[in-house]
Write a structure and sequence with these properties.
This protein is mostly helical and 282 residues long. Helix content is 68%, strand content 0%. It has 12 helices and no strands.
C-alpha cells in the first residue's frame, strides 16, 4: 500500500500553458472600442462649434480680414507670402493643443471622481495602461477629425505651397496634440480637484498659444523670451507645421522638432499610465 504521506497523485500541478495571461496593450484598448464610440456618438454635436466653426471664423477674422491690413515681408514672416499663410499652420497647432487639453482634464477627472468609469473598468481584466491608452486613442481620434477637417477647409485659400507639406504637417499637428495630451493626463490623474485645471488653461494653454510663434515670429519677443519660447514643445510643433506648409523645411531643425515632440509624448505616456495605476490602487 502506498504511503499517503508520499502520494503526490492528488497534488495540484502547475501547467504554464494554462495560467491566465494578461491582456496586451492592443487587446486592452480594443476591448474599450464600443465604449468610446458610444461616448463620441453622444457628445459629437456639442463639439461641432468648438472643433470646426470657431477655428474657421477665427482664421477668417485674423488671417483674411486683419491680414488684409498687414504689409507682408516674407523675410520677416518666415517665408510666408501673406499673413494668412503665416498664421494658418500655427492656428491649427493651437487648435490641436486646445482639444488635447480639453479632452484630458475634465473627462479624466470625471472618470476618477464623478461618474467613476475608470474604477469600473479597473474592476475588469483591464489594467491602468489599457484605460489610459484607450482614452488617449480617443483623444487622437478627436485630433485627427478636427485638424483634418480644418486643413481640408483651408486648402482652397491657397496657403499651402506643396501637396505633400500639408499631409506631413497634419501628422505634426497630431504629434503635438498627443505630446500635450499625455502630459496633461499625467497631471489630471494626480490632482484631487478640478480647480487645478483653471491654472493649466490660464498659465499653460493661453501663454503657449500666444507666445509660441502662432501669431507672430518669436524673434519679436526679444532674445530671452525667444529662447524660452523655443524650449516649449508648442513652438516645435508650430515651427515644423509652418515649415512644411510653406515648403521652407530646414531638415536639421525639423529633426530636432520631431525629436522633442516624440520625446515629450513618450515621457507623457509612461507618466500618465503610471499615475493612473497609482491612483486606482489607492
Amino acid at each position: 500500500m502506498a504511503d499517503p504521506t508520499t502520494d503526490r497523485s492528488t497534488e495540484p500541478t502547475t501547467d504554464p500553458t494554462t495560467e491566465p495571461r494578461g491582456l496586451s496593450l492592443a487587446e486592452g484598448i480594443g476591448r474599450q472600442r464600443d465604449y468610446w464610440w458610444t461616448v463620441f456618438k453622444r457628445t459629437w454635436r456639442g463639439g461641432i462649434i468648438s472643433s470646426f466653426f470657431s477655428p474657421l471664423f477665427y482664421v477668417l477674422a485674423m488671417g483674411v480680414l486683419l491680414g488684409g491690413f498687414i504689409e507682408v515681408d516674407p523675410s520677416q514672416l518666415e517665408g510666408a507670402t501673406s499673413y494668412l499663410a503665416f498664421i494658418v499652420p500655427g492656428l491649427v497647432v493651437a487648435h490641436a493643443l486646445g482639444i488635447a487639453v480639453g479632452e484630458t482634464t475634465y473627462p479624466v477627472m470625471g472618470g476618477l471622481k464623478w461618474h467613476k468609469t475608470y474604477w469600473a473598468q479597473a474592476a475588469t481584466p483591464l489594467e491602468a495602461r489599457h484605460i489610459a491608452g484607450a482614452h488617449l486613442m480617443f483623444v487622437l481620434f478627436r485630433l485627427a477629425t478636427a485638424c483634418g477637417v480644418f486643413m481640408v477647409v483651408l486648402a482652397p485659400f491657397g496657403v499651402f505651397e506643396s501637396w505633400w507639406g500639408p499631409i506631413l504637417a497634419f501628422g505634426v499637428q497630431l504629434l503635438t496634440g498627443m505630446a500635450f495630451a499625455t502630459v496633461v493626463m499625467g497631471i489630471a490623474v494626480r490632482v484631487r480637484s478640478e480647480e487645478a485645471f483653471g491654472v493649466i488653461f490660464r498659465l499653460g494653454v493661453m501663454p503657449l498659444t500666444l507666445f509660441s510663434g502662432a501669431f507672430f515670429p518669436v524673434s519679436n519677443l526679444g532674445p530671452v523670451m525667444e529662447w524660452l519660447a523655443r524650449l516649449t514643445p508648442m513652438w516645435h510643433g508650430v515651427n515644423l507645421s509652418r515649415m512644411l506648409c510653406l515648403d521652407t523645411v530646414d531638415w536639421p531643425v525639423a529633426l530636432v522638432n520631431v525629436s522633442v515632440l516624440a520625446g515629450v509624448t513618450a515621457f507623457g505616456w509612461f507618466w500618465a499610465a503610471r499615475g493612473l495605476e497609482r491612483r486606482l490602487v489607492l
